[in-house]
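From: lab user (bench 3)
To: helpdesk
Subject: output format question, protein + 5-phosphoarabinonic acid

Hello, I'm new to running complex predictions and I'm not sure whether the block I got back is the full result or only part of it. Here's what I submitted:
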Amino acid sequence: MSDINLNFNSCFIDNKEIDIIKEKIKRIHNKIHSKEEYDAMPLGWLDIPIKTDINELNAITNAAKRLRSMSDVIISLGIGGSYLGSKAAIEMLGYEDDKVIFAGNNISGQYLKGILDYIESKDFSIIVISKSGTTLETALAFRILKDVLIKRYGKEKTSERIIAVTDKSKGVLKTIADEEGYECFVIPDNIGGRYSVFTPAGLLTIAAAGVDIYEMIDGAKEACYLYGNESIDANPAYMYAAIRNMLYKTGKSVEVLVNYEPSMLYFAEWWKQLFGESEGKEGKGIFPGSMLFTADLHSMGQFLQEGTKNVFETVLNFKSGSDDILIPYDAKNIDELNYLHGKSLNYINDIAYRGVKEAHESGGVPVITIDIPGRNPYYFGCLTYFFQKACAISGYIIDVNPFNQPGVEMYKKNIF
Ligand code: PA5
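Helpdesk reply: Thanks, we reran it on our side. This is the complete output you should expect:
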C-alpha cells in the first residue's frame, strides 16, 4: 500500500526554525517512547493497534453481529471521545444508514423524541459508551432508552440488548452493567477519550455498522511503524506537527481542516476534538476549525482570501475516489458546460482544490496538503493514528499536557 504524503510550500517558513524544531521533536520522541513516560502518562494509544490481537477483534465483531441480528436499529450512546471516532469512521467509509444511529451526545428533548419516534415499531438495541461512566448527556439518554427497552421486551431480555463499553472497574455504568448482567468491553486505563477510537469505545460501534475493523487495525498498525520514526524528514506526522507550530509562531493561530468530501464532515469534528482538547490550555494552542469545500468557499472563502491573516489550512486530499460520475454531453449546451463533457466530477473537484490552493496561498494563507491514497478502513486507521501521533508531539512542542482536559472536567462538574 502507498503511504500518506505531506506537501507544503516552504516559502512560508524560516529554514533556521526547522533545525531548532527538529531537535526538539527528537527529544519529545525519545521521551514519549520511553518506559518512564509510558508508565506515567496515558500513552496506551501509542501501541494499542499492535497490542490488539485477533481474539479481541473477533470478540468485538461477534458482539456487533449479535446486536445486528436482533435489531433493526442499534443506538450508540456516547459523547466526545466516546462518539466522534466511530461517527467519523462510519461516515467517511460510507456506512451511514439507518441501522446505526447516535444519541447521548446532546441534551435536546427534540432530538431524543425524534429517535423514540423512529424506533417506535422497530427492534432496537443499545451500545452505551462512557469511560467515566458518569457523563450526563450519555447517562440521561441511556436511562430513557433503557426504560423503553424494559417496557417493550421485559427486564431479562433488555439485558441481552445492551452492551456497555466502559472502565474495567470504576464508574456508575460499570456498576449498572455488573448488576444487570450486560456484556461489557473495556476502555483501557491508559487511553483517554479522544485517543480511544482503536479501543472498543470506537471499534464496537464501527463493527456494528458493518465496517471491516480488521483492515482498520491493519492500517493503524502500519501507521505505528511509519510514524514511529524519530526523524521528521522520514516521518510526515512529525513534519506536520513541526510545520503547524512554526506557523503558529509566526501568528497563524487558527488552523482550518479542509475537506472536499462531505463524508469527511465528522472526521473533521473528531480532529477538532483531538487538537482542541489536547492543545487548548494554559492560554496556548492553535484554534482548530473546519470547512467543507467547495460549499464553504461560497461563504467563508471570502474570509480566507482577504480576512485577518491568522489562518492556515490543512487539506485532506484523497487520491482516488472510487465512486465517480462523468459529465454528459448536452446538444443545446445552454449552460455552456460542454467543455467539461466526458470529464468526471472527481477530476473537477481536484482542479478546484488546485485552483483554490493557489489563490489562498497568493492571499497569504499557507496550505498544508495531506495526500491520502484511498478512502477505506485501512487508510482511516492510518490517518487517524497519523493525527493522534502528530497531536501528541504538537502538544509537547508547546509544553502543555496533551492528554488531560481540565476545562472539560470543570464543565462536567458544574453541569452535574
Ligand atoms: O476526550 C475526553 O476525555 C472527553 O471528550 C470524553 O471523551 C467525553 O467527555 C466523554 O467522556 P466519557 O467517555 O467518560 O463519557
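A quick orientation on your result: The first strand starts at residue 5 and ends at 8. Let us know if anything else is unclear.
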